[in-house]
From TrEMBL:
Reactions mediated catalytically: Endohydrolysis of (1->4)-beta-D-xylosidic linkages in xylans
UniProt entry tagged with the keyword Cytoplasm: no
Residues annotated as domain GH10: 33-369
Gene3D superfamilies per record: Glycosidases (3.20.20.80)
UniProt keyword terms in alphabetical order: Carbohydrate metabolism, Glycosidase, Hydrolase, Polysaccharide degradation, Xylan degradation
GO biological process: xylan catabolic process
Lineage of the species this protein comes from: Bacteria, Pseudomonadati, Bacteroidota, Chitinophagia, Chitinophagales
Catalytic residues identified in the record: E273
A Pfam family recorded for this sequence: Glyco_hydro_10
Entry's Gene Ontology molecular function annotations: endo-1,4-beta-xylanase activity
Protein name: Beta-xylanase
SUPFAM superfamilies membership: (Trans)glycosidases (SSF51445)
Record family assignment: Belongs to the glycosyl hydrolase 10 (cellulase F) family.
Length: 375
């Protein structure tokens, strides 16, 4: 009998082993960052690699790319106050729920974005039932109820929240942004938002999130805010650095100084909205000029972009003990907010995957240098 088994099974062993190897590879490729060559597999030992998405990204080739490359999702718009809470007694959960369900189904982490921001705020927040400006107590009650409801709904899946977004002013000599939140509620709204988010989910990591963090003046204001909150015992657990950069900025020296200053706060950092425009950085929206018609993704642009991404990741690696995650702001060049900022309808190519969802030079160069970046 043993002899017959050996005669039958022996020749089949190579085929069985090959089948096992192929099956294992397929399963790996279908799990978060499962590809042997992926962002999550290359950098996930230190950085959770994430991507901002909308419901349209969760099917077809885009979904496959997400599952191959990333370990975390951020809803680009679906959890912002305007889309999710359009009227006082009405929540629109469809888009946010679809992203949360996708994350649960595939074992992905989920970052919540964002609970309190000066944009995409429904008008009813700041007016009373007569249409007159709402008073401080009413606006704060509405903010409390919103945070309690949204954070509570997703506490099983959201591991971190951008609680307050972009509260710092860009204006010289001005500390906090002169938003309705500030003018009606005073500076205390920031601390209260963190307190209420913590009460709704004591296990979630709570971040203050902002842009233009590479500017030393803006950076000092951000650090002033988070250190003030820390001293008051406010549950702020980290700083989100958006990372909306370009081929010409930041320089390695500027980025190194930026991360050194933020690291000195002792708070963990996350790069929350990373993209690298192929055009020189501009900070204000403007009308189109004749030169803006030159939108082809040229070899020169590709080379400049890959060099900038590599420089940034080398600096990230230097501060790997403090950086928890790196999230890209959109999946591919097929859809990016930079197609309409600073110039409307000017095509940009700021991400690691092209308009056909194929990896670009910048992607390949990062994977080639992964062991150098994270030795």
């Amino acid at each position: 009998m043993d002899y017959l088994k050996r005669r039958i099974i022996g020749p089949l062993l190579p085929l069985l082993l090959l089948t096992l190897i192929v099956t294992t590879a397929k399963l790996a490729a279908q799990s978060p960052g499962g590809s042997a060559n992926s962002l999550q597999s290359a950098f996930g030992k230190k950085f959770t690699m994430g991507v901002a998405v909308g419901p349209a990204d969760l099917s077809g080739e885009s979904a496959k790319l997400i599952l191959q490359q990333f370990g975390s999702l951020t809803p680009e718009n679906a959890m912002k106050m305007g889309p999710v809470h359009p009227r006082e007694n009405e929540y629109n959960w469809k888009a946010a729920d679809s992203i949360a369900a996708f994350a649960r189904r595939h074992g992905l982490k989920l970052r919540g974005h964002t609970l309190c921001w000066h944009q995409q705020v429904p008008s009813w927040i700041f007016t009373d039932n007569t249409g007159a400006p709402a008073n401080r107590s009413l606006v704060l009650k509405r903010l409390h109820d919103h945070i309690k409801t949204v954070v509570g709904r997703y506490r099983d899946i959201v591991y971190a929240w951008d609680v307050v977004n972009e509260a710092i002013s860009d204006a010289p000599g001005e500390y906090l942004r002169n938003s309705p939140w500030l003018s009606i509620c005073g500076e205390e709204y920031i601390a209260l938002a963190f307190q209420w988010a913590h009460e709704a989910d004591p296990d979630a990591l709570l971040f203050y999130n902002d842009y233009n963090e590479i500017d030393s003046t803006k950076r000092s204001k951000i650090i002033r805010l988070v250190t003030t909150l820390q001293k008051k015992g406010v549950p702020v657990h980290g700083i989100g650095l958006q990372g909306h950069w370009a081929i010409n900025e930041p320089t390695p020296e500027i980025l190194d100084a930026c991360l050194r200053d933020f690291t000195a706060t002792g708070l963990p950092l996350q790069i929350t909205e990373l993209d690298v425009s192929v055009y020189p950085k501009e900070h204000q929206a403007r009308s189109a000029q004749p030169s803006d018609s030159k939108t082809a993704f040229t070899p020169a642009k590709a080379t400049a972009q890959q060099e900038q991404y590599l420089n940034c990741f080398r600096i990230f690696g230097k501060y790997r003990q403090m950086i928890q995650a790196i999230t890209f702001w959109n999946v591919s060049d097929k859809h990016t907010w930079l197609d309409n900022f600073p110039v409307r309808n000017r095509k940009d190519y700021p991400l690691l995957f092209d308009v056909n969802l194929k990896p670009k030079q910048a992607y390949h160069i990062l994977l080639q240098h992964a062991t150098e970046i994270l030795p």
